[in-house]
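Tokenise the fold.
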Amino acid sequence: MVITSRTADSHSSASHSRVRPFAIARWLEIVAAIVVVIVLVGGITRLTESGLSITEWKVASGILPPLTDAAWQVEFAKYQATPEYRLEASLSGMTLSDFKFIFFWEWLHRLLARMVGVVFVLQLVWFWLKGAIPDGFKGRLVGLLVLGGLQGLFGWLMVQSGLVGDMTDVSHFRLSVHLLTALLLLGALVWTARDMRRVGRDPNVLAAPITLPSAIVALILFIQLLLGAWVAGLNAGHAAYDWPLMNGRIIPELQFSRGVFWSLTHDPFLLHFIHRWWAWMAVGALIYLARRVRKADRHASIALHSAFGLMVLLGIATVMTQVELWVAAAHQFTGALLVIATAWAMHTDGVLQQQQRRMAGPA
């Protein structure tokens, strides 16, 4: 019996020695960084009206851009058949050189998406085969992979919505699903990486829960990000170029002739107005979250304050520069950083709740 026990202990120790939570955390953080870049490039793609320049989804052959003049002419001809070209781009006299510019951004966006998928799959398989994944985390890592795959699928469905009928833009609903799924994936990557670092310090800790206050803050931020996606999809940033007034008015002229619900989901003036002022609701909620975790994790609190402060300033600058490309792109980039900071602070809040419950003991 003693020999059996020692053998079991030895096997358990060997199994534990193969677990590499810190390495997995670093891998997830690298993937999160790539996702941030993808969000930035996606924003530039939208701002430059590049999203419909590639009309097909070729998983393997689409990795390389056209390499000859003939190949470029073929791709340009496909784009010329789209409603966006026929009803908009052709009116401005788009040249092949102009097409190459917008093609580049969509191609780069898709290339980065492919790259992050390959990086994630190969490394996940390696960690899995090496027995490096801590108990209870395999399902979550597979879930992250599935979420990333869905995000790519939503991206293609978004592109398809702009290739039918007389659509000159993609559906702003599908665009919001595509963007928000990417931001959800980003937050989940950060959360899991932080859980892995905790496991590396103490193998017996449980995954951090989402607290009710954090969930409420996340919901308020989600609404603001959804509004931002709709504003981008409807080009509603061009509804007004002054701030804090809109076209010289506190409340812009609004039309509800097609119903309140339609206006809340389609009217660029109303959505621009709500996005401006819901931002302050989000700021209040984020300040509350930052104060909740300030004593336990001062760095998380500082990161959260810095992210939402910069995002607000860039949002105002985007309006006042008449949606200048790089200012607007920086605004979306900072949105991704804000999601990271929020996930970080929410995770800390969950850890604090765990500690408080453990100190309180059984009821």
